[in-house]
Every structure is written in C-alpha cells, then in structure tokens.
Write a structure and sequence with these properties.
It is built from 20 helices and 17 strands. Helices cover 39% and strands 17% of the residues.
Length: 515
C-alpha cells in the first residue's frame, strides 16, 4: 500500500468516526424519540448526492470541568452546502447525539462560518435546531457564540432567505436565532421552543406546565405566531421546506425562478364563491385558487391569526405574494396579531422582489378594550408602514367590504397601490351601512312612527349612494370596476406591465417602523 493509499484510508476512518456522532447508543436514543440524526436530516432535505460537508474535524476548545478529556465529533454540529431542486443552499444541523447538541464557541463558529459563506455566495441559509442550549462548561464563550450568530442573522436579513427548522429542544438564548430568521418550521411532538423551561417556571412562579404545553409545535403555530409552518412529521416538514424554496429567490438581487405557466386547476366558479350578502362568510382561499397557476397556494402561518391569509402562489409562472382578509374568521377584521402577520409578510415580499396582490373584504379594525390595551394602534400601523414602504408591484382587488381605516390599510391607492380593482359587490365607505345610517339619519329615524322601517329605508339609501365601488371610482381611487371572471386576466396584465417598475424613496439610513 502506497503512502497516499494509507493517508486516504486514514481519512476515511477519521470521517467514519465523526459521522457516527455520539455513537450507536446515542443514535438509537435519537431514533427512539422519533427523530432523525443530523446528517440524515440534511440528506433527506437536499437533492440526492448534492451535500458537501465542511469543517468535519473542528474540535471544541473547552478546558474546564473535564472538557479537555472529551472528544466531541464535529463539535456537535454538521455544516455544508447542497441544492434543493437545483437551487444552492448553505445548511447546518445541530447533532443532539453529541453533548446534546450544546453550543460552545467552536460549535458557534462553524455555524457563523457557513452563514458568512451563504451571505457571500448570495444563497439561502437553512438551520436545523436540536440543542440542549449553551454549553455551560464553556461559560461566556458559549454566550459569545450565540451573539455572533444573532449578529449575522441580522446582517443577512433581507439579503438572503433564512430558514429555521426546530427539530428538538431550542431553549434559552438559542430561541432568538430562529426568531430573527424569515421562516420557522415546527413538528408535532418534536419541536420545543421557550426561553425558560418548565422547571424554572415551577421554581419561580410555582406553576406546573409540560414542555409541550409551554413551547410545543402547536403552541407556536397557533398561539404565539413564532412558527410559520406546522408538520406532523419530519418528512412532511422537509417537503414544506422544499416547496417554500421553490417559491422564493436565492437572494435580494434576483427574482424567484419562473416556471411554466398553468391555468388554474380548480373547478370552482369564481362568481359563485363570494355571497352577495355582505354578512355571509366564505373562504377567501377559494378565490385565490381560482386566480393562481394550477390553483397551487402555499399558505404561511395558516394556524395563527387566521382572520388574514398570507402565502405564495404563481401568476403566469412568476411568484407572487398574497395578502387576503378571511371572512370565515372574525369577519376578516384586522387586529393586533393579523396586523403583525400581514406586515411581516409584506416586508419579506418587498425585500425579495416578490409582487404583492391584496384581496380585500373587511369591516375595519377589531374594536374592544382588549385590543386597545394590547396596542392595536401600534400593531395596526405596521400594516400601513409595510405597504407604504414597499416598492415592489402592489395590486389590490376589493371583493366586498372595505370600510374605514381598513380600506386605507389594505394597500389602498393612498398608500401607493399601483393598480386598484373592485368587484361590483364592493362596498367602499367610512363605515358599514347600518352604523352610518344610524348616525347620519338619527333624527329622521327617531321621529318616525315606525323607527325600524325608517332605519332600513335609510340603510338602503346609504348603500345606494355610498356603499358601492362607483363613488371611489369617480374620484380615481379605483382604476377599474371589474367582473370577477376578469380578475386573473387583469392581474396578469398588471403584473406584466409592472415588471420594470421603479420607485424611489428619499435617502435615509433606515425608517422607524412601529415595532
């Protein structure tokens, strides 16, 4: 055997040791918890034979509490590059079989190195989180590692897409990296994310709560809004990530990859979806499916703040972002959570050159003491700021109700919409007909012998005079009143027309959104 052959053999043996991670027993325990190993997760997510691993032989530099005697293969994290549907990505996965995936300084430096690489190469970064938290034995070195990761999350924001998968525990300071990324994926019974765990809560507050009830997948998908996608299994999660990557661009300098245009696949008639009675609900996602290519719509944050729908579809083969009021939930009103949800999505689309289509049907902002005290003014202003700030093509279709501040907030002409369309069923007014009639015609109603009959008569008068799309159209606030069946064709035309849109803003360091 030549010297080179011996060296190659030695390399293979070293790599085999690192690839074993924490060893057979630790791997069996990981599998018993329903979890894949770090490398298997990466291989399941990326295109076949596309993964190239870096920094396999990095060693931790802990020297206290017996750490100098411990060998931690790869220092508990796997990093590298690969492709998803041919699109290049950088990726890292924490290895729970090695010291519980705990983060030390060298572990963090592996992560920040691949993040720097992603930023330099202008490709998405994907992080798979499965860690017990900071490596206590390394003290402040571990804290420094977290800080360096958070800094890079912030610098990369709006430049390259950042995707986080929570496939195990993610506690303490570790939670802030996913919170700083663009999309967070969670899996039922596997994902756990919280700042202080059940034991700390029990000690400090005397409250008993399980890890699942405190920070499980459902909690973050339905209650906190920290998660954008919810899956029942890791494999389903990987498929969700792949679908998302197919819709978004590699970086902020390019548009998402175009695909072959397709007609909508749904058999639904768009003119039969929206009831003529403005008080009757319907599922706005059915309208979206009548508009987008192949009726394919990837909804984001489906389970949280469901009174607004956000997500990605394609029009003429090009990715577009949808923001739509959902009459099925709270009549589609805007509240604190739905405003946060919409504003963040709008800013993502604007950052990555994705046109925004807004479908409007809402009676305004949700009234109530709880909402006022929760800061609905500040939260609601986020939507106004996001739409006004965005320079990508912005198109609005008013389907039915557009009342008061809600009309303004949902990408009105006054916030810079490029195209404003309205269906004949649209009602554009300062407030709903019943409320408006009670105020405007109060004296006539009070003086009438049959007050209810007079009220209904005045409501009808108000609807005919104001609660329609034609008053706004007469002022030039609506570009065109259209038939529902014309919606897709007009949207395609508007998108084609605005492909070279340029819009300039005053020079400034940055704005101050109402956080």
């Amino acid at each position: 055997m030549t010297d080179l052959s011996k060296n190659i053999q030695a390399l293979r043996e070293k790599k085999a040791v690192v690839e074993k991670g924490g060893g057979d027993a630790a791997i069996e325990k990981q599998i018993a918890m329903g979890k894949l190993t770090a490398r298997d997760r990466i291989l399941s997510l990326l295109d076949k034979n596309s993964f190239h691993e870096y920094d396999m032989f990095v060693k931790h530099d802990g020297r206290d509490f017996g750490m100098e005697k411990k060998d931690l293969p790869g220092d508990g994290v796997v990093t590298g590059t690969g492709t998803i549907f041919g699109a290049p990505v950088c990726i890292y996965a924490q290895d729970f079989t090695v010291a519980g995936g705990s983060l030390g300084l060298q572990h963090a430096r592996k992560i920040t190195k691949i993040m720097d690489h992603a930023l330099k190469m202008k490709c998405p970064i994907i992080g798979i989180n499965d860690s017990g938290g900071a490596r206590i034995q390394e003290g402040v070195g571990a804290l420094a590692g977290y800080g360096e990761i958070f800094y890079r999350n912030t610098i990369a924001s709006g430049v390259i897409p950042q995707i986080s998968l929570i496939l195990g525990p993610c506690a303490g300071g570790a939670v802030y990296s996913p919170a700083l990324t663009d999309f967070v994926f969670v899996v039922e019974n596997i994902s756990k994310m919280f700042i202080t765990g059940p034991n700390v809560i029990k000690t400090v507050l005397g409250e008993d709560i399980s890890m699942e009830d405190l920070g499980g997948a459902r909690v973050h998908a339905e209650i906190t809004g920290n998660a954008h996608f919810y899956a029942k299994s890791e494999q389903e999660c990987f498929e969700q990530v792949k679908q998302l990557v197919s819709f978004i661009p590699w970086n902020n300098m390019h548009k998402a990859k175009a695909v072959e245009p397709k007609e909508p696949a749904t058999t639904m008639n768009i003119e039969e979806i929206v009831p003529s009675d403005p008080k009757q609900p319907y599922d706005v996602r059915d309208v979206i499916k009548c508009i987008v290519d192949d009726s394919e719509f990837l909804e984001v944050q489906e389970l949280w703040a469901a009174n607004i729908v956000i997500g990605f579809g394609r029009m003429g083969g090009e990715t577009v972002g949808f923001v739509a009021n959902q009459p099925m939930v709270l009549a589609g009103v805007l509240d604190c959570d739905s405003a946060d949800k919409a504003a963040r999505f709008i800013r993502f689309c604007d950052s990555f050159n994705i046109p925004i289509i807004t479908l409007e049907d809402m009676p305004g902002y949700l009234p109530g003491v709880d909402q006022e005290h929760a800061g609905v003014i500040r939260h609601g202003a986020k939507v106004l700021y996001a739409y006004s700030e965005a320079t990508v093509p912005k198109i609005t279709v008013i389907l039915r109700k557009a009342y008061g501040g809600g009309y303004i907030a949902m990408n009105s002409r006054h916030l810079g919409a490029d195209f404003m369309f309205a269906w004949p069923s649209a009602e554009i007014a300062v407030m709903g007909p019943e409320g408006a009639a009670n105020i405007i015609f109060r004296k006539e109603i009070m003086a009438a012998e049959d007050q209810e009959a007079m009220r209904q008569e005045k409501v009808k008068e108000y609807i005919e005079k104001f609660a329609n799309p034609y008053v706004a159209a007469s002022r030039g606030f609506i570009d065109s009143v259209i038939e529902p069946k014309e919606t897709r064709a007009l949207l395609l035309h508007a998108l084609k027309l605005s492909v070279l849109k340029e819009e300039f803003r005053p020079a400034k360091k940055h704005g101050l959104p109402p956080f």
